[in-house]
Amino acid sequence: MTNSLLPYLISGRIEAGCDEAGRGCLAGPVFAAAVILPEDFFHPLLDDSKKLSEKKRIILREVIEKEAIAWAVAEVSPKEIDEINILNASILAMHKAVQALSHKPEALLIDGHRFKPYPGIPHSCEIKGDGRFMSIAAASVLAKTYRDDYMEKIHHEYPMYSWNRNKAYPTKLHRAGILAHGVTKYHRMSFRLLDDQIEIPFI
Fold first, then answer.
1. Which spans in 100-171 are helix H?
2. Phi and psi (nearest 5°) for 34?
3. Contacts (Cβ under 8 Å, ≥6 apart) of 1
4. Helix ranges (DSSP H) in 39-85
């Protein structure tokens, strides 16, 4: 089994791939990761995290953390998401991840088509980059697994929303929990939490 991901956009340049996780969720922070991989890095399982099983993501996270030149994960809270909107929060999370890297990259490869320039580092927005570039795919794996771990943890605080299963995406179970029990401090109040936006109590 092999993948067809590209190891870099420009050979010989230190590039950090950046991606986020949790943008479409109704609760919890948005997470982002930045990863600098060695130019000769390869792992047959590496791909866009959305295409991978949980087991494969966990395997890859260990490999990425061990073999990356540098990696970092950051988050932006639901409160801040409500204040600055989810797009700006996703970009802020990526900026925070880049800032936390132990090595400064020479360029950033951003998954998607929207980004605000990071001071002193040029960037390139790559549509579906998590399925095209190794460093972005690696970032997608870290962002996804760290966010999933976070949602598993707070699930024990509010088990009625089934966050251990849906990770706060707008599933029927999650919305049924909101309808029956109201919202928590982790919910994003600027999001459409229920289809008909009926009055929702706050726990």
1. 134-155, 163-166
2. -130, 135
3. 44, 45
4. 54-67, 78-84
Give the other-Cβ count within 10 Å of 151's Cβ.
23
Is the per-residue pLDDT at 197 higher than 60?
A: no
Sheet holding 15-21, edge to edge: 70-76, 30-36, 15-21, 107-111, 123-126
Residue with tokens 């870290």: 142
Q: Which tens digit of pLDDT belongs to each residue from 39-72?
A: 999 999 999 999 999 999 999 999 999 999 999 9
Using the Cα atoms of residue 107, residue 9, residue 42 and residue 131 in order, give the sign of their dihedral. positive
Q: How far apart are CA 108 and CA 101, in angstroms?
A: 12
Q: What are the φ/ψ torsions at residue 48 (nearest 5 degrees)? A: -50, 130
pLDDT for position 194: 83
What's the whole-model pTM score? 0.94
Tokens 């309808």 belong to 179
Q: How far apart are CA 129 and CA 152, in angstroms?
A: 27
Please give the single-letter amino acid code of residue 33: A
pLDDT tens-digit series, residues 70-94: 999 999 999 999 999 999 999 999 9
pLDDT in tens, 134-169: 999 999 999 999 999 999 999 999 999 999 999 999
Question: CB–CB of 135/109 below 8 Å?
Answer: yes
Q: Enumerate domains of the chain plus CATH numbers.
A: 15-152 (3.30.420.10)
Q: Which helix (H) or strand (E) holds 168?
A: none
